Amino acid sequence: DGGITQSPKYLFRKEGQNVTLSCEQNLNHDAMYWYRQDPGQGLRLIYYSHIVNDFQKGDIAEGYSVSREKKESFPLTVTSAQKNPTAFYLCASSIEQAGKETQYFGPGTRLLVL
Amino acid sequence: AQSVAQPEDQVNVAEGNPLTVKCTYSVSGNPYLFWYVQYPNRGLQFLLKYITGDNLVKGSYGFEAEFNKSQTSFHLKKPSALVSDSALYFCAVRDIAQGTYKYIFGTGTRLKVLA
User: Fold this and answer.
1) Distance CA B88, CA B81 (A)
2) Which residue of chain A is at minimal alpha-carbon distance from B106?
3) Can you name the residues that pair with B25 across neighbouring β-strands?
4) CB neighbours (10 Å) of residue A70?
């Protein structure tokens, strides 16, 4: 998990509420990602960004929003439009230097709905 | 489009026995392949990768993987399994389409090492 921090570890959301998950990296990686993992399932890509001030939708972007104002930070907002937000959220960043491409993950945030 | 498949949801192996976790891929061009391990309520940890070079790649915790181009496989192996190896394992391929930085993950294989 080294170099990528996610907070909080657990997050509770009330119905109709927007919540923001934090992801910070000190690895000087250009690219950052958000994934959602449901129990017993694989990873699904929500959003990704390969450069500051630019990001692209992944496979399940509806109900989520992101920003990339700084290279180190890629916060994810789970909006009230996301009707089933309970999941484990994983942030990742990657080296994109030719021949060294590798993705690294943070420790995750578990989001629960009250 | 790039894809990976992990055909086994779960693999059981006795402690001390060799283990194999299977992964096959479908890519256009040369594949960039990765293995990750996930322990409960934790993020994924990088184990090893193949980008180019030797077909046998050695990684963390005694794991290795063999790239087989003719069989389009990248199976994860360890000569002697430990109970502490019990975890969820993911194979991944980097999407090399121009202008994208996406990584595509398999559905995961749960490894259970029995004492």
Assistant:
1) 14
2) A42
3) B4
4) 11
Q: In what order do the strands lie in the sheet with A76-78?
A: A4-7, A19-25, A76-78, A64-66
Give A105→chain B minimum CA distance, Å. 6
Give B-chain residues touching A58 at CB under 8 angstroms. 102
Could you tell me which residues are beta bridge partners of residue B111? B11, B87
Which tokens hold the place of B94? Answer: 């980097």
* Angstrom distance (rounded) from CA A13 to CA A81: 13
Among B46, B52, B108, select the one facing A104 at the smallest CB separation: B46
- DSSP annotation of B28 reads S
pLDDT digits (tens, 9 = 90+) for B33-86: 999 999 988 999 999 999 888 899 999 999 999 999 999 999 999 999 999 999
* 8 Å CB contact of B32 and A101: yes
Question: What is the per-residue pLDDT across A28-70, written as a single tens digit (0 to 9) for each?
Answer: 999 999 999 998 778 999 999 999 999 999 999 999 999 999 9
